User: Which sequence fits this backbone?
């Protein structure tokens, strides 16, 4: 075999190898991208459902306040819960807006920054939700009124009411400790990781992993 023929043959093999590698990369990118889309679409619809529930709950609380204007404790209880509900609703809206700006045609690093920002929002609103713990008695007041038609603040035993107040105060340091514990730097702790995952962080983490896999193949 002449030298020129050998060179052409090697060139042909090299071209085929490059084509095969390009096809493999494209296949990996497509697969990982579809996985990422599936995960993020699931999170998007989950957030839409949470938003609808949050808005409905806020409306019910507003109606409850209107129907119980004669009882300051009930109004205050509903108002406190409404504040946290509005915070949760705003959190859903912010996360939905972030997801809606996600664009697979952009650079992977940009999309990863978007997902990191989304995960930051998830952790922030989870921490704020924890701060509701000392206000658990507000749910009891509203629950008794809605399901039993009883204003437990008026008819409840004084000793029982005092015990609820003590428990509420005791929850303050617990809520503050949890608030400080739930953060990025503590995701290695099992229960922190589980809470963040249950709030949508798991979906974001999976999507980030899929993007990293695409980036790894592109630069390998």
Assistant:
């Amino acid at each position: 075999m002449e030298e020129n023929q050998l060179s052409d043959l090697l060139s042909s093999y090299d071209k085929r190898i490059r084509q095969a590698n390009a096809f493999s990369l494209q296949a990996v990118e497509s697969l990982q991208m579809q996985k990422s889309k599936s995960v993020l679409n699931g999170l998007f619809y989950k957030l839409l459902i949470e938003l609808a529930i949050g808005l409905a709950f806020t409306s019910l609380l507003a109606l409850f306040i209107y129907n119980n204007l004669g009882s300051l404790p009930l109004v205050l209880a509903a108002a406190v819960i409404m504040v946290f509900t509005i915070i949760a609703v705003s959190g859903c809206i912010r996360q939905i807006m972030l997801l809606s700006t996600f664009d697979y045609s952009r650079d992977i690093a940009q999309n990863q920054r978007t997902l990191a920002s989304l995960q930051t929002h998830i952790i922030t609103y989870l921490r704020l939700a924890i701060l509701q713990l000392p206000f658990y008695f507000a749910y009891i007041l509203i629950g008794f009124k809605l399901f039993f038609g009883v204003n437990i603040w008026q008819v409840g035993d004084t000793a029982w009411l005092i015990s609820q107040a003590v428990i509420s105060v005791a929850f303050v340091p617990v809520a503050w400790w949890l608030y400080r514990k739930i953060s990025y730097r503590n995701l290695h702790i099992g229960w922190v990781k589980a809470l963040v995952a249950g709030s949508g962080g798991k979906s974001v983490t999976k999507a980030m992993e899929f993007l990293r896999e695409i980036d790894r193949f592109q630069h390998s």
The chain has one domain: 38-218. The two ends are 35 Å apart (CA to CA).
